[in-house]
Amino acid sequence: MIKMSVYYPAEGGSKFDHDYYRTSHMPLIKERLGDACLRYEIDKGLAGREPGSAPAFVAACHVYSPSLETFQRAFAPHRAEIAADVANYTDIAPTVQISEVVGG
Known about the structure:
This protein has helices spanning 18-33, 68-75, 79-85; strands at 2-9, 39-44, 57-65, 95-100. The protein is an alpha+beta fold. The model has no long low-confidence stretch (mean pLDDT 97). Strands 2-3-1-4 form a four-stranded antiparallel β-sheet.
């Protein structure tokens, strides 16, 4: 199984609409990926390591898929639509990582 993670750094002055992300963007991804999306999780940053410190990321998501090939095949036809929707909830340039889930 793989996990595609998207991290949105907490940058002063940047916007991030958590409601839109939760109710529109992530359901769009789930719908477009179909069975290639086993499940997804959404994180909302609260704090950093030290008490009272700001979080490093304002938000993140994690999309689980059976394999890298399955994910890429399902995502490719919808890449432009999904990318275009990003402007509806943020102006932050995200960091993306795809990982193999090896435990848990």
